[in-house]
Specification:
The chain has about 475 residues and is an alpha+beta fold. The chain folds into three domains: about 210 residues, Multidrug efflux transporter AcrB transmembrane fold (Up-down Bundle), CATH 1.20.1640; about 70 residues, Alpha-Beta Plaits, CATH 3.30.70; about 170 residues, Gyrase A, domain 2, CATH 3.30.1360.200. The chain is built from twelve helices and 13 strands. Strands 4, 5, 6, 7, 10 and 11 form a six-stranded antiparallel β-sheet that branches. Strands 2-3-1-13 form a four-stranded antiparallel β-sheet, with helices on one face. Strand 2 and strand 3 form a beta hairpin. The longest helix is centred in the last third of the chain and has 33 residues.
């Protein structure tokens, strides 16, 4: 029937989407990534110390906790826990594939600084072991860590030629002037593939793009303008970029930059990085430097705080609730109750499938609170069909045919559905922004399920009911729970 085509296509879309999602899950043998409360993970205790002496203040501790939480989240690790316990900072992360990398990023102080280069001394240069360079041993971290006084000239080690972040016996030493700008002058940082030429062809190398604040842009222009006054090849034309007392790069200012004019535009790039280095450095710079030094004291394996029994109980509770909903809609709406069954099954398949895919793609972890959000969403989905069907029944009671009532009932209930779903979605967004820990998991799954519910209602509810009401069996009022229908 030509008139039925506009209802068949949306149904094909929604069923195809469900099939594709679960086909990907089956082919790649994916499973949901469970959080600390259901699967366990790793816990590290850090002892914070004030680099300027004295006891850490409450403000410093709270700031450190916030920065650590942002760093862990930027690594794609959701549902982590960062707490203060007896003056120590305890970081617990779910069982992820790269816990060492995440924990290393947590404890990095990330003091990024730009300094003018005064002198570059290679390991073969006789001055390498003479004053003022002999006091710094690139093979012993304790001789250079903490010697980056921002107000004074310093000597620090650079990465070796192999590109390792930690210096060694083959690393050059740089004598540099006072800090010209630091991490607080940078508004954002992101990793990207380096490009060359007007066509933007990638070189295969990675870099970190820095965007300076207004004050930072002026300082960077002033720094590069002064360096450009030195001839090409002169070490003083170089700008050193240090991260935690290690020179990670010291590129020269381009030859086309004019003396005392510098590089304007408020952006710069740190080049010569691997993809891993760029992806690790960018979130460290963006999240800011830690006001305290963190010394890892212990690392333990955290067992599931709730365990399989709690998960099983939650799933049983959800199944019982879903079964009661199925029974109620079948008794009250009869044939139309079958539409609700299929609609809820579609929403559930999309919800669970997308959560599993997000666990693989962005590291989303599912906690018991997240499961509660999905279960609560069952009621939201059922409400969508109830609003639609009740409006349909009102149209039938007014004397219209069942087929006509479907279109008019959908049109008149659509604004109500939009308003209801919008309220639920924005409530979930606000809760996600303001909350921390497992509550964010509840808010995220609730917001996701609300969007999926509206999608399923648009592509399934109306087309399915419109097609069914064309069948003679469904035109009998008693079969669809509408006695007034003819």
């Amino acid at each position: 029937m030509p008139g039925s085509r506009r209802y068949v296509i949306p149904l094909l879309v929604v069923f195809t989407l469900v099939g594709v999602v679960w086909a990907v899950i089956a082919v790649r043998d994916l499973e949901p990534r469970l959080g600390l409360d259901l699967r366990g993970g790793s816990s590290v205790t850090f002892v914070p110390t004030n680099p300027r002496g004295g006891e850490p203040t409450e403000e410093q501790l709270n700031t450190t906790v916030d920065i650590i939480r942002n760093r862990v989240n930027s690594k794609g690790v959701a549902e982590s826990e960062v707490n203060l316990e007896g003056g120590n900072i305890v970081v617990s992360i779910p069982d992820v594939p790269n816990p060492d990398e995440v924990i290393a990023a947590v404890g990095t102080t990330a003091q990024l600084q730009f300094r003018p280069v005064v002198e570059i001394i290679g390991p073969s240069d006789p001055k390498y072991t003479q004053d003022p360079f002999k006091a710094v041993d690139c093979t012993k971290p304790e001789t250079y860590t903490g010697k980056d006084d921002p107000e004074k000239e310093v000597v620090l080690c650079a990465r070796n030629e192999a590109g390792q972040l930690r210096p060694d016996a083959n690393s050059p030493k740089l004598r540099m002037g006072a800090v010209s700008l630091g991490g607080t002058d940078i508004s954002s940082a992101r990793p990207q593939l380096a490009t060359t030429g007007q066509g933007g062809v990638t070189t295969g190398q990675w870099e970190t793009q820095l965007n300076f604040s207004g004050r930072g842009g002026d300082r960077f222009q002033d720094l590069t303008g002064k360096a450009a006054c030195n001839p090409d090849g002169d070490p003083k034309r170089n700008i050193a970029i240090t991260l935690d007392a290690v020179v990670i790069n010291y590129p020269p200012v381009a030859s086309d930059v004019q003396c005392n004019q510098g590089i304007s535009g408020g952006t710069a790039v740190i080049t010569g990085q691997t993809q891993g280095e760029a992806e690790n450095l960018a979130p460290l710079i963006s999240s800011g430097a830690l006001p305290l030094t963190l010394d890892p004291q212990s690392r333990t394996t955290v067992s599931a705080t709730l365990g399989a029994d709690s998960l099983r109980a939650g799933l049983i509770g959800g199944a019982v609730g879903l079964g009661l909903v199925f029974l109620y809609v079948l008794v009250y709406y009869r044939g139309l109750g079958l539409v609700i069954w299929v609609g809820l099954a579609i929403a559930a398949a999309l919800n669970v499938g997308i959560v599993i895919l997000m666990g693989e793609l962005i590291g989303f972890t599912l906690t018991l609170a997240g499961i509660a959000g999905l279960i609560v969403a069952v009621g939201i989905s059922a409400d969508t069909y109830v609003v639609f069907f009740e409006r349909l029944k009102d149209e039938v009671r007014d004397g219209k045919s069942l087929r006509t009532s479907v279109d008019r009932g959908w049109q008149r209930s659509f604004h109500t559905l939009v308003s209801a779903n919008a309220v639920s979605f924005f409530a979930a967004v606000i809760l996600y922004v303001l909350a921390i820990g497992p509550v964010r998991g509840f808010a995220f799954t609730l917001g996701l399920a609300t969007l999926i519910d509206f999608f399923a209602a648009w592509f399934f509810a109306r087309p399915a009911v419109s097609l069914l009401t064309r069948l003679r069996l469904f035109q009998e009022g008693r079969f669809v729970g509408i006695r007034a229908a003819v």
